[in-house]
Design brief:
The protein has nine helices and seven strands. By secondary structure, it is mainly α. A three-stranded antiparallel β-sheet has the order 1-2-5. A two-stranded antiparallel ribbon has the order 3-4.
C-alpha cells in the first residue's frame, strides 16, 4: 500500500526526528529500511546524490554489504533537497559518530536496531492521530518513491537501479501499474495507425 503525499507528510511528522529522517530517506531516495538506518553524512557525494553502500543487517544488527551487491559495491540515488536538508538538520541537532546519524538509543557505538522504528510505527498507528489504512507498512515509504518516479515519467530502468533491485523484472512486476497509462496510450496510438 502506497501512502498519498498527505498521508506521508502526516505520518513522517508523527514520530520522532529519527523516524522522520528514515521516512525522508525511504520516500525521497528509495532506500530500504536497513539502508536508511545506516545513513551517513559522508555519503552525500553531491548536492543531489546520495551514495548507498551499506545497510544495518536485520539479523546481525551490524553494518553489512548491500542486498544483491558484493562487498564494497554501492549505488548512487537521487537526493531531493528536502531529504538532504533532513540529513543535515539531523546531523546539526544530534551530531554523528564516524558520520553515522542514527545510533542505538542506549549505546551510540552500535547501529540503530530495526525494532526501534518498527515499535515507533506501531505506536503511531495505535495513537490514532494519523489515518494509517490497514495494510500500510513502513516499507510503503519506499513504494512512494517508486510511485513518484514512475508516475512522473522517470524510466523504469533508472528506478530499478536506484532501488537496488536485482533485475528489472522485479521492478516491472511490482510497479507496472504505476507507469502512466502505457497500455491505454499504446491502444490510442495503434488505433490512430489503424484508422489511417
Amino acid at each position: 500500500m502506497i501512502p498519498s503525499l498527505t498521508q506521508l507528510n502526516e505520518i513522517r511528522t508523527a514520530g520522532d526526528d529519527g523516524f522522520r529522517l528514515v521516512a525522508d530517506l525511504m520516500s525521497g531516495c528509495g532506500l530500504r529500511n536497513g539502508e536508511a538506518f545506516a545513513v551517513n553524512l559522508n555519503n552525500l557525494v553531491a548536492d543531489d546524490v546520495y551514495r548507498v553502500h551499506e545497510q544495518v543487517n536485520q539479523t546481525t544488527k551490524a553494518y553489512a554489504k548491500l542486498k544483491h551487491r558484493k562487498e564494497g559495491e554501492y549505488r548512487d540515488v537521487p537526493l531531493p533537497a528536502r531529504t538532504r536538508q533532513s540529513i543535515l538538520q539531523y546531523a546539526d541537532t544530534y551530531g554523528t559518530v564516524d558520520g553515522y546519524l542514527l545510533r542505538h538509543p542506549e549505546d551510540i557505538t552500535k547501529p540503530l536496531p530495526g525494532y526501534y522504528m518498527a515499535n515507533q510505527w506501531q505506536r503511531i498507528k495505535k495513537s490514532g492521530k494519523v489515518d494509517i489504512p490497514d495494510g500500510m507498512v513502513l516499507y510503503g515509504f519506499r513504494h512512494f518513491f517508486a510511485s513518484n518516479c514512475l508516475s512522473n515519467g522517470i524510466p523504469i530502468t533508472d528506478v530499478a537501479e536506484w532501488m537496488g533491485h536485482r533485475s528489472l523484472d522485479i521492478t516491472f512486476k511490482i510497479y507496472r501499474n504505476l507507469m502512466p497509462g502505457s497500455i491505454g496510450r499504446a491502444a490510442q496510438i495503434l488505433d490512430v495507425g489503424l484508422a489511417a
